[in-house]
Protein 1
Amino acid sequence: MTIRLTALALAGAALLAAGPAATIAVAQTWDMPVPYGDTNFHTVNHMAFAEDVAEATGGALTITVHPAGSLFKHPEIKNAVRSGQVPIGEFLLSRLSNENALYEIDSVPFLATSYEAAEKLWNASKPKIEELLSEEGLTVLYAVPWPPQGLYADRAVADGSELGGAKFRAYNTATERLASLMGAVPTQVEVPDLAQAFSTGRVNAMITSPSTGANTKAWDYLSHYYDVRGWMPKNIVVASVRALRSLDEETRAKVLEAAAAAEARGWAASREETTSKTAMLSENGITVSEPSAELTAKLKEVGATMSAEWL
Ligand code: PCA
């Protein structure tokens, strides 16, 4: 008690001595809610980002990553940052498509299906996306794509007709639309609930990355994977402008530096995941194959419809 009062008194004296214009560097801790589990490569990247920040700022800023929607559920994360409940958070960018179609440009099927194309698309769309988010008091720190999206099912899919009436797991509006256009019935399921949704028959198929399949041990609940490479949706990390402003200039610069490093590291990790996690699916007994010409044609047709709708 005495010690605490003394510390408070000292801090108060320092504030008075420094005058109104100076900022006193007070160590801060930031809670960072993220939607995906702790073995996911995005989450691993955020942990490294947090370590970099702690080290570079000499402990002036500590970031605590809360994985798997444990602090805020995925649909709540953006507004939690916006409203100041947390200073920083991650979400799937295309989930914001109901606010502006630009947010889902990375989920238009067959628009950008390689890392090179995804990077071009990000560079082209980034200024406008940054502007839109900044209007809401959010600063973009970094964005990292998932590996190319492939088709998973609890059955063999020869031409796509096998998915007629199937219950199709969706993670954003674009995947919902794709499911409907394939003649399936879409239903939103978050990654932490995925294994259970399949095991209980709530869903039979989905399109997602080899990472999400491997992270959720898809071999326990389905049998087939088709390497469709449909699109590469991105996760984005944003901080509130207010929270960034509350840092002293040097600390803020270190955060932005660590964020740039996290973006580069994340893209490299994503590339690596594509190969390693596809191999893991097959090693664990999933039948991994290229989609047939018929299935590809069907998906491309759906993609063309969705591109036209996006435009
Ligand atoms: N995994 C996330 C989004 C895209 C991906 O590869 C998911 O399945 O929800």
Protein 2
Amino acid sequence: MRLFLALMPPPSLRGRLGALADAAQARCGGRRMPDESLHLTLAFLGEVEETRAAALVDWVSRLAVPPGEWRLNAWGRFQRPGIVWVGGQAPDPALVALHCRLWDELESQGLEGRPSRYVPHVTLLRRAERLETEGLPTPALTWRYRHLLLVRSFTRDDGAHYATLARSA
Ligand code: ATP
Ligand code: MG
């Protein structure tokens, strides 16, 4: 099964991220992520066997994540897949540290696939027609988090759907 570790926005923030996605789509076109799918990926694990997934559920359930506040104050783009995102002007140090710690622990469990760089971001649009975020109002949101989730991703014709398998302690 296809798994990743993520932060899910609290309900109050989800709507505000959705409003940013609407504003971005009006300008850039493309496919808008549905509100219920908006998230921050901390670590993408890819395809994982069932027994390993069970061990990951155990591990995540015991994991203590330092609570934090992430400031979302910048638009970003990834050229190749045409992604428009919202995130920080610079990668947030606490999130980068969390990503590194998670990958240290994942590697000690035998997982592979640690990326060479990590830019914390929330994808708002895919396959954007115009990667032009200039002129959009500068985002100003604060995301307070306490838990991370182990999430399973199902691919369907209308895009990916996510199901939560575990939550950190
Ligand atoms: P779809 O691929 O169907 O458009 P999706 O990207 O939302 O949908 P997944 O591909 O399962 O679904 O990805 C789950 C999460 O992991 C997303 O946040 C995605 O951006 C991220 N992700 C996917 N592949 C990678 C990768 N190779 N490296 C880092 N993050 C990834
Ligand atoms: Mg994908």
Protein 3
Amino acid sequence: MRKKLLLGNWKMNKTPSEAKEFASSCEEMVKKAIDNNVDVGVAPTFVCLCPVVKYAPKGLIVSAQNCSQYDHGAYTGEVSIPMLKEVGVTYCIIGHSERREYDAETSEKCNAKIKALLAAEITPVYCCGESLATYEEGKTNEWVAEQIKAGMKDLTPEQAAKVVIAYEPIWAIGTGKSATKETAEETIGFIRKTLEGMFGAVAQDIRILYGGSVKPENIHDYMSMEDIDGALVGGASLKLDSYKALIDNLIG
Ligand code: 13P
């Protein structure tokens, strides 16, 4: 039985004091999620990781939004996995479409990062998803299969089982135009089949999230689908009230 996961991707929002405010006020909601067997977490910017780890209640997962594939060295502006580990980060988003678009992140680079994260026992949350043009051409499956095959290349089934996949159609991110639950389920089911082709039966244990304009009003619909194991949420995860409503409606 795959455990549900709700992860808030804060993107480039919140100053350290705002992040601290959220972390120190979310105890009740984190407890509610845990009591209902749901993993719950946030992914703040690098500079907000320390305050969030320090002030978060027990059980709140703290995720980074990116990492370097290298341990140390002359990589100006980068943050390494040992640094994240020491700070107390336990998850890391990899290959978000915004990084693929603005920072030329390739699936091959994501593959190196995923392997390095697994070696450090940090859970990678590997993002995939197609553009509106690809969706309209009916080539979603081909596109995501390519991203999954390249990003998850050469992992053992045991390693693959530890990765979380997030399917985020680019046309649904921040647009308010979410994929229908049927469309999301269809693609996520296809991703699971692709993983089964690569890793066998262990694909049934891999958690696959949906992301793209998830809100308190629609999260329950997604969670009612067989293959959808949680959500990666941007805008609706920023305010405590909205995050609380996401948990309430995910559970209820
Ligand atoms: P929104 O929930 O704001 O559409 O963002 C989705 C996303 O990109 C999460 O990683």
Protein 4
Amino acid sequence: MSNVKRVYSFGNKKAEGNGKMKELLGGKGANLAEMNLIGIPVPAGFTITTEVCTEFYTHGKDGVIAMIKPDVEKAMKEVEAQMGMEFGSTTNPLLMSVRSGARVSMPGMMDTILNLGMNDQAVEAVAKRSGNPRFAWDSYRRFVQMYGDVVLGMKPQSKEDHDPFEEIIDEMKAAKGIVNDTEFTADDLKEMVARFKAAVTKQTGKDFPNDPWEQLWGAVCAVFESWMNERAILYRQMHKYPAEWGTAVNVQAMVFGNMGDNSATGVAFTRDAATGENIFNGEYLVNAQGEDVVAGIRTPQQITIEGSRRWAKLQGIGEEERKAKYPSLEEVMPAVYKELDEIQNHLETYFKDMQDIEFTIQDGKLWMLQTRSGKRTGEAMVRMAMEMLSEGLIDEKTAVLRVEPAKLDELLHPVFDKEAVAKAKVLTKGLPASPGAATGQIVFFADDAEAWKENGKETILVRIETSPEDLKGMNAANGILTARGGMTSHAAVVARGMGKCCVSGAGAIQVDYKARTMTIGDVVLKEGDWISLNGSTGEVYEGKVATQAADLSGDFGKLMDLANKYAHLKVRANADTPRDAKQAFAFGAQGIGLCRTEHMFFEGDRIKAVREMILADDEQGRRKALAKLLPIQRGDFEGLFEVMEGNPVTVRLLDPPLHEFVPHFEKEQRELAAEMGVSYEKIKEKVEALAEVNPMLGHRGCRLGNTYPEITEMQTRAIIEAAMNVKKKGIPVHVEIMVPLVGNHKELKYQKKVIDATANEVFAERNDKIDYLIGTMIEVPRAAVTANEIAEVAQFFSFGTNDLTQMTLGFSRDDIGKFLPEYLKKGILKQDPFQILDVKGVGQLIREAVFKGRGVREGLKCGICGEHGGEPSSVEFCHYAGLNYVSCSPFRVPIARLAAAHAALKQEK
Ligand code: PEP
Ligand code: MG
């Protein structure tokens, strides 16, 4: 154990670590080392590794201190030598900063302590050395405040309480008639330190530590502990970072930006993180320390003249006033600015990415405290990648990998105006089911959404849950909010398909259809009230929040072309209407992987014919009704084939249980009875007879086609006739007929017989032929494990991972919301298996099915059409599982294309 290196020194253009060691040294530590190696001025220091953080949680505080003490003491000696000061000296004290640094940046999640080493003796020496007692005492009081908060737990006692230190500051301000912190004199600050320390003794029962080494160990362990604080845990959960990573601790000599008007501190970006524009930008404060810039107590000034002018324009400040009151660093300290500009250029060129940098100017000397790849918006991410490519800074593959697929979403949907949303009141939160921003007046019924739209009104459809009957209303509304349902609930799937904003499963909402109200806690909203939804975060806001349309710039198209160049997987869309298909095609879909034909049944008067078919007494009655549906379906299929111009179109035969289509309320049942010329009682009886205890496992999927083959006949005829009509127009067609919910190869065999017989009938009638494939969905576990038998019949497989997840895990896709939050909290599940493919279970079945299927039918075409087909990590799995394509809702097509390219490029590496 003794030869494990736990502490890495850096300083004076030398370093034991380097920029590649992010896992061990954390992002900050690795880059501090690298900056030294490339000759950038960095205060000397050392990094305690992330492995020690893990050891901290197994060996405890004392165990870890014993383990690292000799190495830390040795590293501290090197810092002392380089800085010409001594840690713990009473005459020439070296002060240190202690900061966290995980392998990825987790801004603001963990703790930092500055000015460590300050005590009753050091403060006098610093006052003497700097000739600035106010600065010395201010540094001391900042240290006691930070250390008291982070290490000694001096937090407010309750939600209503003030921070104990801020309370003292406020009291002293009041007593001395002071408005601004900067007005405190050295003597005031001395008094403040004494009062802070007394507060510590009172609250903790222990005196504030005066010994610098005791301070240091306390701080180091507190940083390790902050890895497990609530917000860090939450942040990791949100970003799916494992707890095992741990944080490193960076202990570094202090440099001071608060030593007077020749000192300053700032934060800058080498490009604009919001827009991606290639412009150096950032903020600074003269005579300030570390966190002051972000704390927002004083208004920071812009670093460049250009930035300063833009800022002033926004504020409505004229040039003269700007120059006098808010000059840029470029104007105030031109020589230091020039050096900073050179360094930022150097850093971006060296790291080949936009850098987020922190710096301090101590008495006219510039020090760099941090550089890291800066966080950015989706828009900025795309622009920067494509501009850096054209500048020659990065190559094509790097440009593709630079853009996170999920971030593309921000570019595709309307978004909330940033300022407006910051001011909006959050009412509750549900699942971010379908991204985008929507605002409208509350309606509770689908037909109201339609009627209100006709009257020029904007609506949000609020439902306990949605059913296919609500489709038209969902289409008419700007957004959909449901109290129940998960990420693959009807509302979520349909909304994503439409590219419509949807928040589902907002469990805190009580919907009262009768009263036409929704209640959240003690807030009651009624029909007609305005609300806004953020489908990317799941937030529900009160009132009307302004939105702005997405702008798909040229860079987006260029990026998509590159993604296609490197991806192996093809990307198709789940689209049910020619309109969705058009949208998908515009986003680059290379075919349709799933057309859910039942979704076509809800438009216009079609539902009537469908109901007639379902409620018919016998085959003859069904055929009569089906004959009405035939031309309608044929027309829709023609539309799809035309839009897709010869790209494959997979049409799935009817899937859902029939009782979903019939009316459930007396009023509608009576209307239908009148229309069909039968008694209300008869309709009521029929509807009741169709009800199932467990419809998801009931009379649905190919079980419908096998019990009522005339449905399959009608649908096949519609598909084949449509394809032949389109072909006649000179447009190529590529037809794939897909049979749902097969679990036994004989189910498919029977359906194939009906399909082939019908197709041959049409060919004979028209004296012509077209090619078509018959395949199946693999969504029943038995189908996956008997894939060899099924592949004897099926010409392609499409994994329906919504049902396959439901049946493999035994979790109802509509009810998972009831226990998922608790399962996530307890760590029983790492993520929602309906969003992110369960690779171990469902994934194993997919691999097995692909292997067995291709064993029987060489090169069997395999795809996925469950919701996972548009989720980046699931797409990566599909790449490795050797699938040919993924299929997802139109608005996720670009994301899947990029994710497919990422998977291929990562495998190359
Ligand atoms: C599936 O089960 O994954 C699928 C695509 O079918 P549906 O969601 O329509 O059941
Ligand atoms: Mg299914």
